[in-house]
Amino acid sequence: MKRKKETKTILMAVAMSLVMSACANGAISTTAGSGSTTADTTAAASTAEGTTAAPANAGPGGGPPPDGQGGPGGGPGGPGGEAVDTTTGRVTDVAAAVKADAVTGSTACSSSTETDAAVACLADAFLKTLTDEQKEAVQFDLTAENGAVWSNLPAGNVKRNGLMFGTLSTESLEAVKALAAEALSGTGYSTLRSIILADEYLTTDTGNTMWDADLYYIAFLGTPSATEPWVLQISGHHYAANLSFNMKTDSVTPMFVGVEPQTFTMDGVTYEPLAARRDAMYNMLGSLSAEQQKTATISGKFDDVLVGPGQDGNFPAKEEGILYTELDDSQKALVKASIEAWVKDANEELSQELLSAYLSEEALSQTYIGWSGSTSYADHGSYIRISGPRVWIEFVCQTGVAYKDQIHFHTIWRDKLADYGGSFSS
């Protein structure tokens, strides 16, 4: 895969931790505001907040049970799972580092012309900044069990793999930023950066330390290599990405993005991280006629995404919604735009490969769009889904956690054949 030739400005921040099963945090997407600095809004596509996947006692259509009924929403050790100490060992102000506009990586890696090789080089450069103890803590075996350890909930509530950003030295954190910037697209890094800053905003605005930029994690499943399989895992509140390399199929899924509040201003810059994803999905839904909306209705109600953390491979056996081929040309274009809103977070070459697969005529002829609850993103329980032979996208609106008079978003993007690079699927 050829390395993307674009300048990527990226800054990683860590997310604080410890929020409850429905956590609210924001990814940042900048929008132009009167008197505000504008930051690449398009780059920060919609993001979804902490999710609780549907457990065995889920309601019709797979909707999650009421809060407090447990379930695998937080992945292994999910809601109510083992508590995690996120208060000790912090040495770096992640939010300050993420706000910066420069990313400095190893110059030795700049000569790599292949994305996989460049990412492996930057991963190795990051490892060289760590102590022996940290090196041991960041590396895991490449197994399905380890792959499933991610969540959208606050870090204090649910265990993550790897090292917490806030415990890294300044040098190590800069190396993480460079690694993430190379592994994702410029848009994808902006999404990550914005969501981290949303957590920082929550902590500053509410005084609740369960959200914090320091509380994001990095882990390697397998040994970083330009030729051998491995996964780069980044996870925190309202963000999880599993970037696979040298697998059956390279991928960035499962990818969870969420945000609370939907928009916020920090240091004169206004962020609206999920605006692109939100607008794409609701433009698509809004284009349907009354009769088409009826056909596209999914049974059951949804308070959260269905195939979230802890739900690997648990896709519904039966498709629901309206088939892509039943739409007119303008509606079909909106379906494609919705899928692209997620896929563009992957690096350029991988994004093109995935879109070629997802948007082929054969794949689209088997792709459904559906909705439940409400057609407005102002309403709790408004839910939209896209399901194809490979692509799976969910967008759901929830009453806010930090701001109960507002709605916040959770989203999930999965690939039915290539989650974790397809290495754990039968």
TrEMBL record:
Lineage: superkingdom: Bacteria
Compositional bias segments (type: Low complexity): 30-56
Signal sequence residues: 1-26
Name this polypeptide is given: DUF3500 domain-containing protein
Ranges for region Disordered: 30-86
PANTHER family in alphabetical order: DUF3500 DOMAIN-CONTAINING PROTEIN
Keyword tags: Signal
Pfam families: DUF3500
Chain intervals with Gly residues compositional bias: 68-81
